[in-house]
Write a structure and sequence with these properties.
The protein is 55% helix and 20% strand. With 264 residues, it is of the alpha/beta class. An 8-stranded mixed β-sheet has the order 7-1-4-3-2-6-5-8, with no helix packed on it. The termini are far apart.
Length: 264
């Protein structure tokens, strides 16, 4: 191989390495996507808290403010390109890294479907798709003493109740998730056709009102039906005999009708 050809291959290899490095640096230096999630309660979030997807850190909380509607507007800056672009249907949930502390709070994102439209930069995640963290102490403060004692007993005996059935219980929880998701989808579909739902509720109320206005007649009808059923029950022997003879009687009737048809 000539020295000129060797130098040419060396230069080509260097250019290829430089091109790959530029592409990597360009992807790493791309601007992160910013979205604003609206929460009913910011849940003691602070600037700098992590944003995670599937447990992996993908960004940070860059700003927290109070919106005109009284809800918390939490700005999230997503820098991990593997999670971008965010798509419609993405949900934001405030969670605790540790139950015993609020310092480890973070925002967990549940990414929307891959075939959903992209969220533009500075888009909003509506309150319907967000959920604030619930402190265990706040939950305990909402129940009375008897309920607390029952909860303590539940925790004390729960481990023994599930002893030996942990695997089956885990499989049950895995199967429960898609079932709940399907229920949510069905509920969303029902909610989309609001006029039809309203008509259904109005018609149901109308029917219920009609039954209420005729409750005396309805009661008498039910009493009469019950009396008829009791009478049939008392005569079930005779009724059974009649039903047993019915096929032969019907066959004879068909023969008679055919003869009558021929005669006519």
């Amino acid at each position: 191989m000539s020295s000129a050809r060797a130098r040419g291959l060396t230069v080509a290899a260097l250019l290829l390495v430089v091109a790959v490095a530029v592409a990597v640096l360009r992807g790493a230096g791309a601007d992160p996507q910013a979205v604003t999630a609206r929460f009913q309660d910011a849940g003691l979030l602070v600037k700098g808290n992590q944003v995670r997807v599937g447990g992996a850190v993908v960004g940070t909380v860059s700003d927290i403010s109070l919106g005109n509607d009284g809800r918390a507007a939490v700005e999230l800056r997503i820098s991990d390109r593997s999670s971008l672009p965010l798509r419609r249907g993405t949900r934001a949930i405030v969670r605790n890294s540790s139950v015993s502390s609020v310092a480890g709070r973070y925002v967990a994102l549940e990414l929307g479907p891959l075939d959903a439209p992209r969220l533009p930069d500075h888009a909003e995640i509506a309150t319907l798709d967000t959920r604030a963290a619930v402190d265990f102490d706040e939950f305990l403060n909402t129940v009375d003493g008897e309920s607390r004692r029952a909860l303590q007993e539940l925790f004390a005996t729960g481990s023994s109740a599930l002893a030996g059935a942990e695997t089956s219980f885990g499989r049950t929880l895995v199967q429960l998730n898609p079932a709940l998701a399907q229920i949510r989808d069905v509920t969303a579909e029902i909610g989309r056709d609001e006029p039809a739902l309203q008509r259904l509720l109005v018609d149901t109320a109308t029917v219920s009102g009609a039954f209420a206005e005729r409750r005396d007649d309805l009661g008498q009808g039910l009493v009469a039906a019950a009396t008829t059923v009791r009478a049939l029950a008392r005569e079930r022997g005779a009724l059974s005999g009649t039903l047993r003879r019915a096929p032969a009687l019907l066959a004879q009737g068909r023969t008679t009708l055919r003869a009558t048809d021929a005669l006519l």
